[in-house]
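Here is the promised in-class demo. Please do not try to memorize the tokens; focus on the logic of going from shape to residues.
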């Protein structure tokens, strides 16, 4: 019983961290793309 709730909490925490990581990664990719677009635009 205790182990089950512990596992549930762990998996919830892991899902939360994975979600945060995915969001941060997406933002990084988007920022990188925007930077490249801006650089390409400014070089013209």
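The designed amino acids, position by position:
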């Amino acid at each position: 019983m205790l182990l089950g709730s512990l596992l549930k909490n762990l998996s919830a925490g892991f899902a939360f961290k994975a979600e945060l990581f995915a969001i941060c990664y997406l933002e990084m990719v988007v920022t990188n793309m925007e930077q490249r677009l801006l650089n390409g635009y400014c070089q013209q």
